[in-house]
Structure formats: C-alpha cells, structure tokens
C-alpha cells in the first residue's frame, strides 16, 4: 500500500527541480499536493515511487500505456532496434508495417502520415483540411482537449464566467495573449446539442474547413455521444463541404476499430497517438486517400508540406508495432470486461450509499464525477468548488490505499490488470464512500 503524502525522496527531488523548472515540473499536467510524486520504475499495471511505495496505476501516463509498464514484447523489440540504430534520415520497413496495421484495422484510414505527438497529429489534420478545402475556419467542442495548437485550444479552459450562452458558446482564449484572430476563426459547439450543431455548422459552413470531434472527450467529462448529435454533425458537415476530423488520440483504445466505428461517425481524417507508440512519443494522421493527397510531394511541392526530424523514428514505430500487434480482440475483450467490473461496481456502490457521485466512460476507460446526475456535456461536468474538494479527497483516499486515480481526467485499465485489481478499485471506492458518509448525509 502507498501513502497519500509523498515521501522524503520526492521532496528532495522537487527541491532540486524548483531550481531548473519554472514551477518545479516539466509538464503542466503533473499532479501535486503540493509536491509531485517521483517515480522510480513501473512494472505491469503498477508503478513504484522513489520512496518505495507501490501503486496500481490507473493513470498510465494519461491512458497511453494500454499494456502497462515495461511490456516485455515492447522491451524486446526496442532492445533489438537500439542495436540497429535510433533514427535515420531515410524510411524503414517497420513504418510500413505499422501503417499497414492501422489501414487494415481502422475504417476510413486509407493513408497515414506519422508525426511525434498527438498535438502534431491534430495540427496537421487541421492544416490538411484547410489545404483540401481552401478554407481556414474550424469548429470544435467546448472543453475538449486536442493538444497545444492555438486553434485547437480555443475554449478548452472556458468557465461559467466567460463561456457565453448555451445556444451560442463564446470562443475563449486558453492563455494570455492568444491572438484575437484565432478566436475569430473557431466556432465552438456544445457536446450532445444536436440542434445547435446543425444551426452553427449551417450558419458558418461556407467558411469552415473542418469540424473536429473527439467521440468521447476526456477533459469534457468522458461522456458518451448521443446518436442524434453525431448524426447532426456528420450530416450538416457533408451538406456544407466541411471535413470531419475524429480526434482518437485517446479514444482509439475503445475498440479494435477505434471509437468512431462504435458511435456511427464516418470521418474524413482521424488523428491517433498514445497507444500506437507503445509508450514512446508518436502521433499519426490517417484518412481518405483523396484528402491525404495534400501531403503528396511526388510531383513537387505538396499542398501541405509535412516533415519532422523524428517523425516515424524507428524506436517509436518499433514500440508501437509491438504494442498494437498484441492489442488483439482477446486483449480488448479482457479490457472491456475489467472496465465493466469497475464501472458497474462503482455505480452499485453509489446507488447503495446515495452519495452525490456518478461514473461515466466505456471500454477500458472510466471517470468518477462528484455529482449525482451523469452530465451531458462540458458545462454540466464542470465542477463546483465543493465538488473539486470531494474529488481531491477521493484521489487522496485512493493513494492512501495504493491506487493512482487521475484527478480530472480518464482513468484507464491496462492489460496486465486482472479481476482482483478491478475489484480492488471498487472496494477502495466503496471504502471512501463509507468513511466520508458524514460529508453528504
């Protein structure tokens, strides 16, 4: 079992880090209370910090490690590749093999380009839509995270103070100094509002290059899409010549064919990342052959030049190929079974206690919300100060009982986990409800 408070080893390292990083960390997403936990190593579904505490890891580097830590097929493949070379200015056969796997597996992925991160995948997908349509504006969902590209960040951090009316969300900046011109070029929609989606996409259709949709946005609640909303987006986009980009950097793990296939979305472009890199940095843009031709440089300068010193580097490609080859139907069924145990168990515990919580998610993903009713979109999922306090208590309780639970995003199941691990998650959650009963009765 771990401890909720970090130990001496983490505190010593954080004191050093404060001297070289702006806030002592190298990523804004690092959780701290007030000191971050420093990790020494990972093994399967567990991680061990520098003070020797072991935790069941439900973060898995923000859902990336679908096979857990130090997955042996990936380790072996990387060890072999390291002796052959780490990167080249020329292509390798392995990148063809991973692209073939994605094209065979994911509907509508007829051609692929590899990049280094999910952010780059979204960036180039949006650029590809612009190059294909000759238009510049995009539409996106309020509160949905699509990486660190300016246009994709609009209204990521929208709050009740600035997000505007329910029927016409305001485009809000995600950081101080974001150009006003960027805000003018992004139309913001609410998730699961079919009528508003039809109206906004019709009103701005002639100027829109693309609408980017995460089929189940994690930061916006990990909420399932309503069929009428997905249909409204797709049909209205098609009528107005607007490309549909499915951002599956996180949600590709929902099925063998990805998330779009589950929810009836037929995109023109799909962005991928996280699990397709086997634990190493990667991103990919896939899509219809006609659209992907904007990258074609065989006859000279393409409509959209795309390079990158480390794009399709042999290490990421090798790790990704090993990981994806082992993510077969049996592995995905195992993940879904465990996900169902966790979600159903948490839901039963909530129902029994009457506590103001709910659980959302699908397949190998789940998210606990400190509210009684399952939200429909980002605004309904937005936590009050009291709700945020409850989540902090929950996260700390899990850590005290040897489980890492993400504070504000998707928790994920990995293939090394078993039924005992899943039942432990439910047991600890039930223990939290019992021990904090006085907070809501």
UniProtKB/TrEMBL annotation:
InterPro entries assigned to the protein according to its UniProt record, in alphabetical order: Aminotrans_3, PyrdxlP-dep_Trfase, PyrdxlP-dep_Trfase_major, PyrdxlP-dep_Trfase_small
Pfam family membership, one: Aminotran_3
Gene3D superfamilies, alphabetized: Aspartate Aminotransferase, domain 1 (3.90.1150.10), Type I PLP-dependent aspartate aminotransferase-like (Major domain) (3.40.640.10)
Signal peptide: none
GO molecular function: pyridoxal phosphate binding; transaminase activity
Keyword field contains Transferase: yes
Domain of life: Bacteria
SUPFAM superfamilies: PLP-dependent transferases (SSF53383)
Family: Belongs to the class-III pyridoxal-phosphate-dependent aminotransferase family.
Protein's recorded name: Aspartate aminotransferase family protein
């Amino acid at each position: 079992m771990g401890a909720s408070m970090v130990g001496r080893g983490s505190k010593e390292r954080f004191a050093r880090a404060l001297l070289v990083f702006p806030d002592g960390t190298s990523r804004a997403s690092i959780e701290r209370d007030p000191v971050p936990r420093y990790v020494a190593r990972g093994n399967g579904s567990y991680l061990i910090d520098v003070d020797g505490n072991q935790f069941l890891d439900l973060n898995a580097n923000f859902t990336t490690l679908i096979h857990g830590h130090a997955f042996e097929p990936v380790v072996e493949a990387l060890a072999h590749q390291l002796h052959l070379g780490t990167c080249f200015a020329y292509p390798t056969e392995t990148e063809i093999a991973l692209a073939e796997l994605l094209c065979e597996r994911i509907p509508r992925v007829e051609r692929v380009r590899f990049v280094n991160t999910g952010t780059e995948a979204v960036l180039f997908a949006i650029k590809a839509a612009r190059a294909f349509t000759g238009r510049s504006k995009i539409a996106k969902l309020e509160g949905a995270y699509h990486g660190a590209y300016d246009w994709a960040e609009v209204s990521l951090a929208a709050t009740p103070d600035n997000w505007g009316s329910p029927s016409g969300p305001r485009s809000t900046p995600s950081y101080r100094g974001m150009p006003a011109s960027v805000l003018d070029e992004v139309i913001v929609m609410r998730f699961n509002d079919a009528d508003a989606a039809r109206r906004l996409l019709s009103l701005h259709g002639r100027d829109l290059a693309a609408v980017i949709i995460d089929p189940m946005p994690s930061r916006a609640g990990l909420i399932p899409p309503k069929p009428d909303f997905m249909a409204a987006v797709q049909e209205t986009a098609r009528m107005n010549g607007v490309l549909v980009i499915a951002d599956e950097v996180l949600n590709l793990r929902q099925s063998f064919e990805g998330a779009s296939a589950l929810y009836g979305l037929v995109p023109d472009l799909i962005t991928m990342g996280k699990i397709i890199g086997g634990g190493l940095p990667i991103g990919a843009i896939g899509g219809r052959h006609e659209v992907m031709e904007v990258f074609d440089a065989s006859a000279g300068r393409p409509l959209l030049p795309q390079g990158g010193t480390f794009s399709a580097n042999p290490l990421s490609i090798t790790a990704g190929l090993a990981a994806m080859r082992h993510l077969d139907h049996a592995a995905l069924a195992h993940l879904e079974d465990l996900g169902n145990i966790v979600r159903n168990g948490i839901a039963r515990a909530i129902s029994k206690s009457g506590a103001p919580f709910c659980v959302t998610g699908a397949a190998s993903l789940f998210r606990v919300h400190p509210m009684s009713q399952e939200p429909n979109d980002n605004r309904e999922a937005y936590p009050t100060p009291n709700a945020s306090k409850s989540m902090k208590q929950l996260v700390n309780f899990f850590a005290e009982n040897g489980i890492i639970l993400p504070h504000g995003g998707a928790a994920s199941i990995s293939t090394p986990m078993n039924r005992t691990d899943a039942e432990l998650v439910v047991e600890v959650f039930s223990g939290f409800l019992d021990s904090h009963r006085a907070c809501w009765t």
